């Protein structure tokens, strides 16, 4: 039993140890991504471990040509192989070299041909001189026995040495000697009959490259040395030579003004099938509209960023300059422009439905380090490659540039392009024609702008038309290369689809403009009636143009604003393709209409200011004269300070706005820049797409939305809270008039104006503070009469239509105190006139002004009181004895259209208003015009500069200038029309 248990324990112990030993073995399941081209010169690539392993040079090993194993170096022979990657090698003795099969060592022909190399080891290494081109190297006899020395044998006539110099092979021509009279040797070895070489290849023009921008033509070293060889081999159906010939055509930018040439050869020799040696380089003439409208791409793409169909994938076929095929690779940003890229940029560049733009600055000498490679782009979709047509904008045919026109039928589409040409610009020099092409380029042509435009079908499935790669090249001269100037290159991707936004903009502009002109005509008619004009004259037509300008400005800006907001709302956040950003024509229309809207709105604002600083205004003082002394002695006087006080209050509210421009602009810029709402305007369906460029149209729409939102919020606060519970400057002015016992008579036009009834309910206002406070207290307790014009009414403000006789009398009276009759005085104020010496000529003007003021004040007061006896006791005014007015409400249609249908030629009409209609002659009542001007100015500057801060500065400066002009002009007008000295207007 114990023996059996011992055996079991021993077996278990052996099993556990085995498990432990096995578990210590390292299994590399995760291996680094190493490729064979990453190994250095002394390493080979081990396929099983996917790693680079060093060939032991001390054992005379080196990597094989395919770099997948180790072989004996060029000075050693194989001692033992046994089919392994590491043969056993031994160096040959002094004066010997390894045979071709590496199995033996053999001496050179004689000691004079031995060369000692002491660079690798202490012992000398031996190599033999090579045999001449007409000889081969022989090491063994026919039976395989090794010769005593390595020997050179000359090939027989009609044969030549093979490339490895081991055998003699028949010549491809009739003779290995190239007869000069009938043949021509190409590239040193190839002998071609002269009949195969066309005459144009010998013409100097065939080797010329013209750089139109630099006005430079160069005889290219590369074309001079290689063009004949490529042509001959291509005619012999050599594929690589035909590819090289195609590359030469691309190098010329498909320009060949000779009667024949590389581009003519490629165009005339279209490939009949895939097996043809000629490459496909050109699309047919006039084929562009058909090619770009084909519906052969059946892949469906999505705007959803998480979808596998949200990216376009391209494969690029590459060729070297000599026509060697370099394979097809997945495209990156660096295949379409000279900028360095990364995976993030490539991923963002080819996202479906998203605009992309990328630019970088490189130096001129960096282009010298770039290889000249040629590319053909393909769209990789559903395991198929779809050829992407290329449109070179500066392609020249004859004297025309067909690809610069918008007419697609004139476009010449091609297939191949390059990023930089640093080879073609190396000039040919006769003394260097036998040397290798290692000269310095006289000029470099490089790809400056590239754009991939993809048109999406009008289908929610996300189908697309063939993409189009648009390219534009530029040139650097020798001087610019030497100066190493910086150059900017750009790449962009544009997705677009057919939409009617541009059409809708034009239609809506047309319809609404017609409505605006009709509405302007109605307002002009009203303006003419209020101005007393009964016929259409030049002034009427000018007024029609000015009013129409303001309405058209609103129409243009409203239409393009609606289009921009519509695009933003329907583009952002969609996963199924319904709407893409419109093409550049829409943005062109938006910019154009915004510029026009700004100019027209500026005209409207200038007209507004002009009318406001030209209104006629008179302050009617209801205060009765009092004796100067309590005993009744002295002249009866009325204090002027109440009039000054009301005038200053009017002057203060002339430029008051309903909202703050500074707060509006600061809040807008804060939200756009600090809160980064600006990021919403990036050209991507996501709300924020950090790797995409800003869309000007989306920036415009976001600007509108944020600006209007801030304004509405500010307006609601000011109207609903501030002016209701804190301070209402306009209503306070009406109260001030009542307290001061002064009415305001404003004539905005010839027969139309506004009236503020400020007559005190207490009968007087020129008193002390205690009396004033008592009066206000009695008014609060409703112990006095009402303030209104009519008995038992509180209606104090009116729109007025006055008779022509009243206006005529007003004009006649005020003419006597105009500034022209003031003898050069600074102002027409009564106090300023009174400060002059009584004996001065101004004393006469003072007396005249005083009488006119008293007459006008008395006349208007009597008119407002319907008191004919006091008003018309002067013999000169007997004709006005029937002058009177009535108070009534406006009809609904009159209020809606802001016009009057009744005739006020003989009898005035006072229309009850909403309490502050007189603000139409102030900034306060024209808030819509002013805020629209601010908004249009902000958008105008932002659209042109793409800078919110600059837009805010310009808008704020414009508002400040307008306010300053209005304040200065209004102050001078107020002093002139109310007869108040300007120095008392604070």
UniProtKB/TrEMBL annotation:
The record's keywords, sorted A to Z, are: Membrane, Transmembrane, Transmembrane helix
Source superkingdom: Eukaryota
Listed transmembrane segments: 6-25, 501-521, 541-571, 592-613, 697-721, 948-965
Question: Its GO biological process terms?
Answer: cilium assembly
InterPro entries, A to Z? Meckelin
Q: Which Pfam families match?
A: Meckelin
Q: Which GO terms describe its cellular component?
A: MKS complex
Coiled-coil ranges (or none): none
- Oxidoreductase listed as a keyword: no
- Matching PANTHER family, A to Z? MECKELIN
Q: What is this protein called?
A: Meckelin
According to its UniProt entry, this protein's organism is Laodelphax striatellus
């Amino acid at each position: 039993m114990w023996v059996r248990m011992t055996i079991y324990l021993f077996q278990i112990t052996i099993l556990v140890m085995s498990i432990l030993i096995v578990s210590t073995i390292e299994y590399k399941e995760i291996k680094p991504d190493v490729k064979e081209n990453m190994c250095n010169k002394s390493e080979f690539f081990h396929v099983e471990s996917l790693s680079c392993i060093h060939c032991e040079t001390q054992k005379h090993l080196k990597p094989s040509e395919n770099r997948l194993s180790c072989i004996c170096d060029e000075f050693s022979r194989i001692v033992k192989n046994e089919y392994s990657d590491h043969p056993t090698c031994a160096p040959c003795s002094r004066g010997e070299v390894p045979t071709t099969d590496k199995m033996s060592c053999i001496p050179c022909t004689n000691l004079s041909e031995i060369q000692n190399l002491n660079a690798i080891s202490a012992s000398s290494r031996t190599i033999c001189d090579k045999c001449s081109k007409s000889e081969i190297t022989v090491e063994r006899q026919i039976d395989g026995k090794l010769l005593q020395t390595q020997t050179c044998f000359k090939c027989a006539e009609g044969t030549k040495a093979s490339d490895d110099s081991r055998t003699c092979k028949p010549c491809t021509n009739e003779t290995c000697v190239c007869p000069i009279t009938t043949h021509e040797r190409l590239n040193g070895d190839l002998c071609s009959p002269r009949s195969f070489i066309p005459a144009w290849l010998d013409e100097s023009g065939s080797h010329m490259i013209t750089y139109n921008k630099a006005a430079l033509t160069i005889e290219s070293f590369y074309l001079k040395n290689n063009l004949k060889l490529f042509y001959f081999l291509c005619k012999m159906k050599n594929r690589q030579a035909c590819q090289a010939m195609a590359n030469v055509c691309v190098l010329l930018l498909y320009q060949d003004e000779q009667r024949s040439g590389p581009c003519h050869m490629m165009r005339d020799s279209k490939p009949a099938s895939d097996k043809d040696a000629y490459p496909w380089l050109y699309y047919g003439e006039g084929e562009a509209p058909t090619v770009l409208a084909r519906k052969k791409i059946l892949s469906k793409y999505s705007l959803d960023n998480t979808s596998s169909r949200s990216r376009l994938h391209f494969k690029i076929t590459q060729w070297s300059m000599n026509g060697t095929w370099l394979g097809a690779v997945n495209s990156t940003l660096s295949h379409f422009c000279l900028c360095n890229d990364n995976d993030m940029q490539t991923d963002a560049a080819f996202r479906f439905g998203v605009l992309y733009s990328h630019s970088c600055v490189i130096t001129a000498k960096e282009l010298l380090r770039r290889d000249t490679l040629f590319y053909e782009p393909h769209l990789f979709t559903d395991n198929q490659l779809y050829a992407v047509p290329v449109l070179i904008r500066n392609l020249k045919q004859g004297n025309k540039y067909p690809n610069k026109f918008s007419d697609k039928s004139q476009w010449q589409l091609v297939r191949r392009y390059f990023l930089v040409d640093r080879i073609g610009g190396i000039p040919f020099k006769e003394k260097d024609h036998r040397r290798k092409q290692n000269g310095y380029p006289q000029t470099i042509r490089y790809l400056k702008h590239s754009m991939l435009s993809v048109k999406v079908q009008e289908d929610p499935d996300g189908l697309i038309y063939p993409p189009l790669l648009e390219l534009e090249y530029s040139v650097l001269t020798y001087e610019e290369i030497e100066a190493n100037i910086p150059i900017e290159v750009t790449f962009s991707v544009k997705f677009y689809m057919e939409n009617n936004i541009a059409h809708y903009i034009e239609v809506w502009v047309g319809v609404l403009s017609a409505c605006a002109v009709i509405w302007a005509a109605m307002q002009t008619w009203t303006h003419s009636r209020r101005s007393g004009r009964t016929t259409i004259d030049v002034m009427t037509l000018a007024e029609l143009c000015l009013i129409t300008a303001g309405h058209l400005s609103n129409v243009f800006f409203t239409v393009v604003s609606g289009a921009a907001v519509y695009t933003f709302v329907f583009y952002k956040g969609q996963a199924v393709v319904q709407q893409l950003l419109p093409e550049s024509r829409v943005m062109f229309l938006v910019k154009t209409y915004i510029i026009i809207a700004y100019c027209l709105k500026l005209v409207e604002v200038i007209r507004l200011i002009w009318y406001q600083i030209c209104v006629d205004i008179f302050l009617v003082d209801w205060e009765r004269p009092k004796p100067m002394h309590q005993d009744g002695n002295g002249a009866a006087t009325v204090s002027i300070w109440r009039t000054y006080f009301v005038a200053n209050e009017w002057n203060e509210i002339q430029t008051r706005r309903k909202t703050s421009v500074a707060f509006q602009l600061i809040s807008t810029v804060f939200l756009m820049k600090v809160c980064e709402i600006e990021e919403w305007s990036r050209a991507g369906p996501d709300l924020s797409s950090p790797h995409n460029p800003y869309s000007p149209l989306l920036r415009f729409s976001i600007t509108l939305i944020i600006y209007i939102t801030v304004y509405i919020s500010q307006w609601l606060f000011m109207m609903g809270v501030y002016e209701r519970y804190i301070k209402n400057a306009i209503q306070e002015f009406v109260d001030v008039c009542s307290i001061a016992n002064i009415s305001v008579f404003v004539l905005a036009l010839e027969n139309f104006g506004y009236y503020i009834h400020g007559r005190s309910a207490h009968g007087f206002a020129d008193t002390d503070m205690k009396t004033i406070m008592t009066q206000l207290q009695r008014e609060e307790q409703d112990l006095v009469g009402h303030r209104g014009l009519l008995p038992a009414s509180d209606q104090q403000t009116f729109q007025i239509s006055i008779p022509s006789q009243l206006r005529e009398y007003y004009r006649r009276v005020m003419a006597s105190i105009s500034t022209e009759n003031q003898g050069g005085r600074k102002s027409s104020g009564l106090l300023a006139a009174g400060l002059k010496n009584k004996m001065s000529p101004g004393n006469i003007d003072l007396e005249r002004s005083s009488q006119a003021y008293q007459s006008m004040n008395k006349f208007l007061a009597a008119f407002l009181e319907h008191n004919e006896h006091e008003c018309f006791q002067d013999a000169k005014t007997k004709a006005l004895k029937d002058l009177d007015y009535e108070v009534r409400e406006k009809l609904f249609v009159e209020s809606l259209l802001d016009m009057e249908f009744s005739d006020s030629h003989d009898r005035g009409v006072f229309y009850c208003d909403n309490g502050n209609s007189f603000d139409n002659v102030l900034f306060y009542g024209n808030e819509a015009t002013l805020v629209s001007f601010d908004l249009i100015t902000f958008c105008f500057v932002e659209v042109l500069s793409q800078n919110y801060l600059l837009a805010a500065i310009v808008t704020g400066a414009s508002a400040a200038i307008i306010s300053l002009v209005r304040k200065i002009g209004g102050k001078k007008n107020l002093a002139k029309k109310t007869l108040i000295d300007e120095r008392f207007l604070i």
